[in-house]
Amino acid sequence: VNMTQGYYMDHFLGGRRIDTVRATGAKVSDLEETPKLSPQEMAANYGWSYGFLNSNPELKKLFGSAVDDGWTGEKFQAELRDTKWWKENSETMRQAKLLKSTDPATYQAQINAATIQVKQLAAEMGAPLTAATLKKAASDMIQYGMDEGQLRYALGQYVDFTKKGTMIGEAGMHEYTMRQYAAQMGVPVTDQALKNQAQLVVRKLATTQDFEDQVKQQAVSAFPAYQQQIDAGETVQDLASPYVQMAAQELETPYQDFNIDDPLIKSAMNGLDQQGKPVGMSLTDFQTRLRNDPRWTGTKAAQDDVMSTGITVLKDMGLMPNKG
Question: pTM for the whole thing?
Answer without folding.
Answer: 0.68
